[in-house]
Amino acid sequence: MNPDMEQDEARLLLIIDRDPAQARAVANHASRDGWRTVCVDECEAAIATLGTQEGMQLTAIVLDQSVPGEEACDLIAEMKSRRPALPILMLTASTSPQLAVEAMRAGATDYLVKPVGPEKVMQAVAGATRRGSPQNELAPLAEKIKSGRDFDAMVGAAPAFRSALAVAAKAARGHGHLLIEGESGSGKETLVRAMQGASPRAKAPFKLLNVADLSASAVDSALFGHEQGAFPGAFDNQSGALQNCDGGTLVIDEIDRLPLASQVRLAEVLETGCVRPLGATYGFRIDTRVLACSNTKLAGLVEAGLFDKDLFERISSTRIELPPLRERATDIPALARHFLAQIAEQPGLRQLGITDSALALLAAFDWPGNARQLQAVLFRAAVFTEGDALTSEDFPQLSSMVLPEPQKSATNYSEHAGVMLYTADGNLRPLEDIESDVIRLAIGHYRGRMTEVARRLGIGRSTLYRKLSDLGIDNAA
C-alpha cells in the first residue's frame, strides 16, 4: 500500500462539542473526506482522550467554545502543553477579535465564527493538517478582520490590478449583471462591497450568498424561495435571496459550484425578471442585480458542458478578472502596511512597522491563498511578536519554505521593498524605469488616490496622467 494512503487512512479527528447535531454533521463530513472521528462533550473527557492509545493517533482537534465557555483558552493551552504539534480549531459564536487573539496565543491554529457549515470546518482542518503547509502561520484568519467598503480598500498599483479596478469602478455605476473571476483570496468579496458602496443601489438590499455553504438540496430554496409543502420539511412559505434583494444587489459567490439545474433556472429568472418559488404556480417581478463571483474561469466550464451557456451570457457581459497576488508581487509592501494598519485596530493588538527584510521574505513567497493568506500571516505574526516592527524572524515557517533557494535573499527582492536603483551588474537603472517604479509605489501607497499621489510627488494631476500614459501605467481614477 502507498505510505501516503496509509497516513491518510490513519487521520483521526477529535470533536469536542455538546451539540449532538453539529458534532454529527462534522463527523459525517469528515468521514466522507476519509477521516475517523472521536466525539466528546466535556473538557475532562477531551483531556483524558489525549492520553489514550487512540488519542496518541489524533491528527487534529475541533473545539466548540460552548464546552469550556470562558475557560476555552485554558483548555487550549492545556491540550497544547500535552500535544504541542496538534492543530486545534475553535468554533465560537463570538465575533470578538480579542477572543481570536487570546485563543491564538493559547495555541489555537484557527478560529471559526458560527454559524459555519461542516464543509467549511473540514476545509479549515484540511488546511491546518496539509502536508508541507506552515500550519501555524497560514491558517485562514483574514475573515475575522472587517475590510473596507470602498475602493480605497483595494490596495495595489500593478497594471492588471488597476485595469480590473477601472472596469469595476465604471461598472459599479450601472445596473447590469456582471462576473468577477479570480482565485480564492484574491479580493473578490472586498471588490463587490466596494462596488456596492459606489452603486446607485448602495442603500438598497444587499446580500452575499456563498453556494459552497449550501447543500445541493438547499440551493434552490435559498435562491428562489419555496411554498409550504414544496418538499419534505417545507413547513411554511419562504422568500428567496433573489426576491429579498429586489431593488438591490445579490452577490452569488462560487457560482461555478451551482448545480446545472439551478443554473438553468437562474438564467431564466435573469432573462424574464420574474422569480417563482419552489412549488408555486405564480411568480414575482423583481429588479435584482446579480454580481457573480467564481474562483475558476467559467468560459472553460461552458466549453466542457459544466456550466450553462445561457447563464454565462447573462452574467458575463461585463467580466472582471482579479490577478493572483503572485502576479503583482510589487504590491506586497503596500498591502502589508495596509493590513497591519487594520490589524492594529483590533483589541489586544497594536501598531507595528515592518522591516525591509520581512517585506523581502513576503515578496519571495508565491501566496497560493493570495491577499487573504497574506493578511492571515501578518495577523498571526502580529499576535506573537514582541518587537515594534515585524522582521523576517517573525515568519519562521515562511522562511523555511522560501530560503532553501539561496538566491532568494533580501538583496534579490529589494525591488519589492522599495525602488531598486541598480541593475544586477551594479550599474544604475534607466531613469524612466526608476520613475515608473516610483509612480507605481506612490499609487499603491496612497491607495490609488491620484490627487494625493500627484501632491506627494510634487507634480500636477495633468502631468501625472501624462506620465501614466507615457509609461503605460493603468489606473482606476
From TrEMBL:
Domain Sigma-54 factor interaction: 154-383
One Pfam family in the UniProt entry: Response_reg
PROSITE patterns documented for this protein: RESPONSE_REGULATORY, SIGMA54_INTERACT_1, SIGMA54_INTERACT_4
Main location: cytoplasm
Domain Response regulatory: 12-129
Location in the cell: Cytoplasm
Function per UniProt: Member of the two-component regulatory system NtrB/NtrC, which controls expression of the nitrogen-regulated (ntr) genes in response to nitrogen limitation. Phosphorylated NtrC binds directly to DNA and stimulates the formation of open promoter-sigma54-RNA polymerase complexes.
The protein, known as: DNA-binding transcriptional regulator NtrC
Organism: Blastomonas marina
